[in-house]
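README, section 4: Worked example with a bound small molecule

Sections 1 through 3 covered apo chains. Here we extend the same pipeline to holo records, where the ligand is supplied as SMILES alongside the sequence. The molecule in this example is adenosine-5'-triphosphate. Nothing else about the input changes; the structure line simply encodes the ligand pose together with the chain.
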Amino acid sequence: MSVLTNPQLWASTLAMTVPLALPAIGGTFSERAGVVNIAMEGIMLMGAFFGVAFSYWTGSAWLGLVFGVLMGGLLAAVFAWAAIRLAADQVVLGMAVNIFASGLTAFLLNTLFGYEGTPPDTPPLPFVSLPWLGPVFSHQSVLLYVMFAIVALSHWFLFHTRIGLRIRAVGENPLAADTAGLNVWRLRYAGVIVGGMLSALGGVYLSIGILNSFDVGMTNGRGFIALAAMIFGKWTPVGSFLASLLFGFSTALGIALQGQGVSPDLLSMIPYVLTILALTGLVGRSTPPAADGIPYTPIR
Amino acid sequence: MSSFLEVVDVHKYFPGVKANDGVNLDVRAGEVHAVLGENGAGKSTLMKLISGLYQPDAGEIRLEGRPVRFGSPRNAIRAGIGMVHQHFMLIPALTVADNIVLGDEPGGIRYKRRTAAAQVRALSQKYRLEVDPLARVEQLSVGLQQRVEILKVLYRRARLLILDEPTAVLTPQEAEELFQVLRHLKAQGTPVLFISHKLDEVRAVADRITVMRAGRTVATVPAADASPQELANLMVGREVVLRVNKPPRTPGDVVLSVRNLSVTDAERRLRVRDVSFEVRAGEILGIAGVDGNGQTELADAIAGLLPASGGQVAFLSQDITRLPPGERTRRGIAYVPQDRQRDGLVLDFTLVENAMLRDVSHPPFSRRGILQHRPARAYTERLLEAFDVRPRDPDRHAGDLSGGNQQKMILAREVSRDPSLLIAVQPTRGLDVGAIEGIHRQLLRLREAGKAILLVSLELDEILSLSDRIAVMHHGQVVDIVPAETATREQIGLLMTGTRVGESEVAQPSNR
Amino acid sequence: MTPVLATALAILIGAAIAYILGFDPFVAYGALLTGAFGNTMAISSTLAGAVPLALAGLGVSVAFRAGLFNIGAEGQYWIGVIAAVWFGYHLTGWPGWLHTLVCVVAAAVAGGLWGGLIPGLAKAYRGAHEVITTMMMSYIAIYFGQYLIAAGGPMHAPGYNAQSYPIRQDAWLTVLVPPQLTTAVFFALGTAVAVWWVMFHTTVGFRLRTVGANARAARYAGILVPAYTVLALGLSGLLAGLAGGVQVLALDHRLMWGFNTGYGYTAIVVALLARNHPFGVLLAAVFFSALSTGGQNMQMVSQLPSSLTDVLTGLIVFFVAAERMVPLAIAWYRRRRGVRVQVAAAGEGGREA
Amino acid sequence: ANKAGTTENAAGGAPKVNFKVGLVTDSGGLNDHGFNHLSDVGLEKAKQELGVSGSVVESKSESDYVPNLQRFAQQGYNLVIAVGYLMDEAVKQVAPQYPNTKFLIIDDPITDINNVTSAMFKTEQCGYLVGALAGLMEKRSDIQGLNPQNVLGVVGGQKIPPVDSYIAGFLQGVKKTDPDAQVIVKYVNSFNDQAGGSQVAQTEIAGGADIVFQVAGGSGIGVINAAKSAGVFAIGVDADQNYVAPNTVIVSALKGVDTATYDVIKDTLNNQFKPGVQDFDLANNGVGISKTTSVVPADIVNQVNDLANQIKNGSLTVSDQLPKS
Ligand SMILES: Nc1ncnc2c1ncn2[C@@H]1O[C@H](COP(=O)(O)OP(=O)(O)OP(=O)(O)O)[C@@H](O)[C@H]1O
Ligand SMILES: Nc1ncnc2c1ncn2[C@@H]1O[C@H](COP(=O)(O)OP(=O)(O)OP(=O)(O)O)[C@@H](O)[C@H]1O
Ligand SMILES: [Mg+2]
Ligand SMILES: [Mg+2]
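The generated complex, written as structure tokens:
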């Protein structure tokens, strides 16, 4: 099929994978530490908005990235505080964060920049061209390569470092981890906040990675798709990435197949149908970390 | 000998419970010190106070004469206190080595997995606590998990070792191995503090014994001077009957017949191989065996929770091999599962709801699919009364009950269903002598009433004193079935290791 | 934290934001309140908006009770709308009440099959996580609806707009209090009572709750867990589908582009905030609807962007979840005061130290 | 501090008159980069220049339309503007109850209520003009930045009539000036997915498109962005979008929702409210095209102006229907 040999299909696939894989890995960090995180959508919006805002205010996209990620981390920290310290229901909190962030970013956009949107002269992050890798890599955001590094690093971090082992331990059995001398709360904070920063980076990618503007609700549900990718990927960074890749691919495929008489609405279903088929056909059961979503409040 | 650890008038309160209400304890360097007490006496709470998981509300803990205050287990570990908890503190999804080194892993940023495995292997060889460092803990039997817990403490070179009911899940042989380790540690000057309900082993291993009752320490006595009867009375505060008497009975018709049954578990490992036996009305068939030799899977398969991969199960002369668990229940099979918190009860439900768990579609719980709250409540109240479940409040959540009372609740529910067959797996695990006495009496009453009982237990004494016949399992197979009145501990213990004594010996039990 | 206190705290923060940006918070909040409850029209609108939230929220709560997270109520709602509209304009010559009934039942059944049969079976027999499947099915439903009404689509009505034929008027729900409170409100009330009764007074409800509370114990209790998984997701989807059907019979009477208005997502928050209790769901639905209707009045009167109500909503939900803030704050205050008292005592007597 | 608010009184504006205008957006809100936003622009202009007072409310869901319209009417607003066909039923329900209030609905033909006027836009006409312009550009070989392939791109938001009428016009325009050109038409299937818009545009650009026409609301900002970073040209929609990327957006197809709103406010203020459907087209400057950038040669501009005149005088008609595929 000529569609499949078109390099643009694969370039699009990669470009669409980044804003799913980053929050999916972010969610993985949080849930591996035992905190259910459905707030990726909201945290992405924070990252996206403040990425643009600071890029515009400071004139540097890199500073925009830093502040976008920090603001996402800040929101994640507040979420973490309520989830960990106050043992609040994590699903409710996640929804609260999503509503709050979508409201706040829209509100700030309108009051700070007006209804026209963010200024068009906002500097974006650079694109990187690696033509020797083929046309697929001829025009991709620098964050694509950052994402590749993050996939590898996250895998290494979670499964090959001492902190990674400890984070997984508190997500599986916090009481046992506590009796083994670990600081359960601190590890959980770390997981949630690092995860939040990765989600925010996904938002930054959307706003100043491939574009240079913010729009209300511009994440367009990607935080929730990332949630699905995380589960699909069985709570591992590499799995999350592969699931995101499948999703990115089928989205790109849907775009590529348009214009040949089939309704674009029907073609838009491809990613969702494929995901269900893959899930029921090949992947099957995925089991979350045993203590995922269960607050740990030591009696002392 | 100087005191290594002193506990002075310590108090710890939970909402509505004085778990420790004036506890004094003194553990000397190089001694094995046992703590005895009924369920709920406050033993585990005391140990958690010492190991930093809890902090005392009043009182003082001194280590080598200096007062200490541990804000978290981390501090206690640093001070050299190692604890093996009654409920295992293991992470099933991680490997043995991961579990053991957790919190003190070899490596810098990177976790040196291979070094960890090597260290664990060396350690397990040194103490002869064989276990595969690379196995996942969830795949291990309870006995092996116990070893991992002990290795965890040894790995940290604890200066004081605390074991909360370590032998509850061990065979006599395994227990003896553990005692060897304890003696070894003692010889090196490491004091050991350990909790048990088993009077014999306490007397055999401990130097001194402290008895707790209702949150207080009532006495500390040298082990050599204490008789079992004396200790039991101290614990319970009244006279206890230690021996059950089992009137002889002629068994009736075959109730359960198992033919060539094979069972694979959820991970598709063959756990029961070609097992055949019968249980008759009015008979208790005891199943003895080292933990993890297929007993639980056998019980689950008869109850319908695991599918049979081969063979046949017949109940009251009807083939039930393919029936779903609900249907078996309906036909009269009662089941006390091993894991009461995970399988037997819904901890978030009230006692009424737990009472109706197995029979919700029948009166008195429901009529035509509609729940009958008032009759159900009345029924539950009677149940709590009859089986002395405390607190006697049907609206309490099952999770609020102590382990012993949870077990009583399950037994109450299962027994009052008036089943033809009761399968009971470790019905007295972790219970105190008083509670054990009650449950044994219930089992014998059922036997008296002509029910068939399949009793799976790791306690040889329990098997020996209650059973009419004893089937011994090893590696998924029934090695032998022997009549109880002639069986001895040694004989059963040997069979449990898979060693079959010469046919003749087993065949001529009447010589004894 | 009690919802009242949470709301108060959120409102305080919202007032601060408004004030900083140069708006008068009193005017704004006054408008919010009168917009939601100030007159018959406001109350009528608030209650009308609460109906779909309540029905879909009940659906989400049923799944939660069985330990399942139905994140796809939005799509089930959408499918309910489609089914109701299809029967709504295809059937002719039926008595009005029967026509309505057919549409409602069709919506419920369609939602149930969409949310229950496919994700339920996938979960029960393939172990596919319901969060993924319900969400994917939700997107598919939304695109399917768009396809149906797009130019050339099977339900597209001729004309300039992307919309379906309208439901025949005889099947519309009757308006009780103008402008738009219809008999739909009885569906919400009746369904809440029915859900409450089924969950707490029938064996089926008991089994559903058992599966949710402890699936292993449920198996031990003889419950066919896979069957009840399908049942729970089916009921959940059924109620979300019902929400769509009832809403379209009450309000728009046709399928239009832009119909997916997020009820299914708000329903999740409604269910969570109500702690999955049916009557709590009713209250929470009214609360969220009031915030939304009132928020628009607030924008009208004070020109504060209505996105501020989303900020407020997020804060309220957050504070409700973070109920332990209050005891924690009290304990912290006591400790601080305690320390100060001790220090004072030490200063006076000098002996305590 | 309040850029977005619409309450500010124009410092140097017209004297205040006692005339209140209420604007109800559909669920797309004021950030839609489309008709809701433009309507607000028109209202703002009326406030500045005519001295009317105005208030905006953004609807969240379909159950909000009726109460929002009704509130304005109840509070004695003189004119209530409903943006979008989604409010069709709501206007039909509310308007008859408030005969003293005038209503304007955008993009939806309501005929027989005498206090309702409908503004309909012949966007196929401006679509035609930018299509013709693109075709003419594409045929030329002397324009910097165009590739030799004869391919154009269109990115739609969703496949709905207000989008497709633009696209229909565009296709006819291209056919007129560059019959051999291949036009790739794809949809983002969302109006607020900039990243998606950017990907769809990139796919078309990779397929050879060097002028991309976006009809995709917020997603269209992503389209323009993609064109900009690929170094090709884009055509804006609804408003003059040159400001988004001055060197990329060579022209925009204008839908005069802002002028229509302003005009209806002005007419109503002057007691010249006309009920029924008002068509806004090239002839009455209801639709049009923006000033082109210097990339577009003057002769092309002239040819396009000729075509515009033909449409205005009726000698050329443009269909709002896509060709059957
Ligand atoms: N975390 C807790 N919260 C509330 N009550 C508790 C808690 N832990 C223990 N208790 C109560 O404190 C009392 C002492 O419990 P503890 O676990 O110390 O008993 P134990 O002597 O170890 O009993 P067992 O032999 O059954 O293990 C019991 O009444 C128990 O119900
Ligand atoms: N164990 C079970 N698992 C799943 N569904 C069940 C189970 N038992 C019954 N049901 C379903 O619940 C419905 C009502 O249950 P009910 O218990 O009243 O029927 P029943 O099981 O046939 O009655 P009985 O237990 O008296 O034989 C039945 O129609 C059946 O479909
Ligand atoms: Mg204990
Ligand atoms: Mg039944």
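What to look for in the output: Residues 19-223 of chain A form one domain. The pocket of adenosine-5'-triphosphate (ligand 2) is lined by residues B 326, 330, 361-362, 369; C 203-204, 222-224, 227 (CB under 6 Å).

Section 5 describes how to batch many such records.
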